[in-house]
Amino acid sequence: MSEAVSALQGAVSEGFARVKETGLRGMITLRCDLASGALAKALKAVLGAKVPGQRRIVDGAGGRVAWMSPDELLILCAHDRAQAMVGELAAALGREHALVVNVSDARAVFAVSGTGAREVLAKLAPVDLSDEAFQPGEIRRTRLAQVPAAFWINQDGRFEIVCFRSVAQYVFDILKVSAEPGGEIGVLT
Amino acid sequence: MLILECPYCGVTAEETELHAEGEAHLKRFGPGSDDAAFEGYLFMRENPKGVHFERWRHSNGCGKFFHAARCTMTLQVFGTYPAQTLEPPQDIRDRISAVYPGWRWRDFA
Ligand SMILES: [Zn+2]
Question: I need a surface site. Which of A61, A75, A185, B68 has the fewest CB within 10 A?
Fold first, then answer.
């Protein structure tokens, strides 16, 4: 197999917050009835994770599981584990009506960290990013300027953003502009 | 700016996260229907100044279609409800009646 390369190969921009393309990440789309017992068993067996509730992102030993819609989950794992995990999940789901697809190389992942990280996102997305409104454990699918994206915030205040690989350069550029020194608003910490 | 709550993911989404998808509760007339019914299904749309029922899609979000009841004149939103609904739920009709007693929209009242 050819050598896998992430969209922007770890590009970094230092502004009042730091923007980084985080490199290769395993991502699996799983669509099925989220209330099914077979799904709960499969996630527990393969990832050690529970089925997340509406708009939640949960941790397991083998990766993270995010709620994308009433019939869709996104699983985040190590890039070199994704293909094998697709097989394990499909086998664990057995005859359950489900779709499990490795989408790792169709996506890009960014991290935004630093004191103004909330403001960098707030300038690009129609989302209330105040401390009271947006907390770790939630995933928000929305748009960043003109393209769809999803993000969540980690316990350490670092945002992670997932978008389509085809718009990776665009997303990097708007995050970079949003984090440019002098552009601090000073409202969200 | 319209703000609608997506009934699937619970997000209070502003208009730019959504896509308007035309009139709600259209009944499809396909092969075998007469010309007038087919024409009505394809082309005839309500364009009210007042109470209206629309389809929207949470396009920059969970991706699901849903229904919304709102007033096109005041932009008041009476509520949103899932796409798998053949007619507006009673609580939304009651909310409309409180503002516009005697309202009518196609066969709904
Ligand atoms: Zn939604």
Answer: A61
